[in-house]
User: Which sequence fits this backbone?
């Protein structure tokens, strides 16, 4: 018969008891990184929005300090908050005189904040995730791709058509974002420098002003450092041409810059996204210039007193700036009603995806027109440049337009009730805020605090992006395993 034995733990003397090992800083940092990584993996869009909102809060605190303004007193919260949102959203709207209100420290905060905001919501989140996790994992790659392809935000899966930037190229895209910003801004600053130096006569001031104009134009922000705005350069073809070039490069998007730089001499290898972005951008620029030329050539308050060359130059400049640049050589309030409507449409469209510009984006507009052309021809699919565009891209485009229009309409109604200002002026400033353009009729600075808070919320929604915001608010993604019976409603 087998004997059973009971194991008895030997007594442990007090002196032999080991002290509990304290948690090291390295372990705590590792746990923090894991927590952030898990949260980002579960809800990447919310993670990006939280980072973006955190940046707005940080800039608000810094601009609220007495050292940030020339009054040596705390900045009113509404002014600090509105400016912080405008800075991080690279909009250019302001409730105070940017040139005279802020101190050198305040301008430094604005200068750095604009650079951070220009990187983009999801791309910025990816870079921070890379720094935290010491690696660029799959989820971080998906987040970065999401900024250049909204389809990945909603579905997270690869799509069949060629991408402007593929998943394996995201590491190169992030490097391109940083390098292209620095290189392009440096070149633009050098192009600005001779003209600014001839105007100011001071070497250090010319360096600072040239750098400031370079950053504010490439990021499509539109802040101006001097009290007179662009008055000293309002008729200078060289200065205005360089500024248009800088705004154009910032507005086409980093994926386009990346793809074109890799295959500059082989346009046939450019992706469909690159071709649609460049073609639609150039078409809108030309149409906008001709529209302003035809509508304003007889307006004595704007282009009526200019010669033919200046009228053409100013029309082209206004067309480019209404896309998202935010600079102006004229008083926007002096434009006639038809010109304001044209500017509204150009601002609402904005620039390219994953760019420093806002709006619904030029590719969204291109997709809608391609769908209309396909329907007119009786074709079942959308095609462009010998490529077929899947139907889910059209659904995304329609969603973006509807959410954008709803945001603009809601903000316009609220501000109209608060200010009782003319509808065309309210609509212009609201679209400018949503599209992060920065042009204003003067309503923003004179509006009550409540209206300024509404405009700040509109800027945030416009910059974060309606698709990203919708993905962040969605509690979960439901996968439907069945299809209901089909029935066609009457449309039109």
Assistant:
């Amino acid at each position: 018969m087998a004997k059973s034995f009971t194991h008895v733990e030997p007594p442990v003397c007090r002196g032999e008891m080991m002290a509990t090992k304290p948690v090291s800083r390295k372990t705590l940092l590792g746990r923090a990184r894991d927590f952030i990584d898990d949260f980002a993996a579960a809800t990447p869009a919310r993670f990006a929005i939280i980072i973006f909102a955190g940046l707005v809060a940080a800039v608000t605190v810094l601009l609220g300090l007495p050292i940030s303004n020339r009054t040596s007193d705390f900045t009113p919260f509404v002014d600090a908050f509105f400016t912080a949102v405008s800075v991080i959203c690279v909009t250019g709207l302001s409730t105070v005189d940017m040139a005279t209100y802020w101190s050198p420290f305040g301008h430094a905060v604005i200068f750095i904040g604009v650079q951070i905001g220009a990187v983009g919501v999801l791309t910025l989140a990816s870079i921070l995730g890379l720094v935290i996790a010491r690696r660029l994992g799959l989820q971080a790659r998906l987040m970065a791709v999401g900024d250049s392809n909204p389809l990945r935000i909603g579905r997270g899966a690869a799509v069949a058509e060629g991408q402007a930037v593929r998943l394996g190229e995201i590491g190169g895209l992030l490097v391109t974002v940083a390098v292209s910003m620095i290189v392009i801004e440096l070149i633009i600053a050098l192009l600005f420098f001779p003209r600014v130096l001839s105007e100011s006569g001071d070497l250090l001031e010319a360096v600072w002003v040239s750098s400031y104009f370079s950053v504010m134009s490439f990021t499509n922000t539109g802040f101006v450092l001097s009290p007179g705005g662009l008055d000293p350069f309002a008729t200078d073809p060289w200065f205005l041409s360089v500024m248009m070039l800088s705004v154009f490069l910032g507005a086409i998007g980093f994926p386009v810059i990346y793809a074109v730089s890799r295959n500059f001499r082989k346009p046939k290898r450019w992706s469909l996204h690159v071709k649609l972005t460049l073609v639609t951008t150039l078409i809108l620029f030309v149409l906008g210039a001709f529209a302003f030329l035809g509508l304003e050539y007889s307006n004595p308050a704007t282009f009526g007193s200019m010669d033919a060359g200046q009228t053409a130059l100013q029309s082209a400049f206004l067309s480019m700036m209404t896309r998202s640049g935010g600079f102006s050589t004229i008083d926007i309030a002096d434009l006639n009603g038809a010109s304001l409507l044209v500017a509204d449409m150009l601002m609402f469209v904005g620039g390219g995806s994953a760019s420093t510009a806002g709006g619904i984006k030029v590719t969204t507009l291109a997709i809608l027109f391609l769908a209309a052309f396909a329907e007119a021809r009786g074709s079942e699919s959308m095609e462009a440049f010998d490529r077929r565009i899947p139907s889910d891209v059209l659904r995304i485009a329609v969603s973006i337009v509807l959410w954008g229009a709803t945001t603009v309409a809601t903000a316009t109604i609220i501000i109209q009730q608060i200010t009782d200002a003319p509808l065309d002026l309210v609509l212009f400033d609201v679209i400018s805020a949503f599209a992060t353009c920065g042009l204003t009729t003067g309503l923003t600075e004179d509006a009550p605090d409540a209206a300024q808070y509404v405009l700040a919320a509109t800027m945030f929604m416009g910059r974060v992006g309606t698709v990203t915001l919708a993905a962040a608010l969605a509690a979960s993604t439901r996968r439907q395993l069945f299809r209901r019976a089909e029935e066609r409603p009457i449309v039109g």
In short: The chain is about 65% helix and 0% strand.
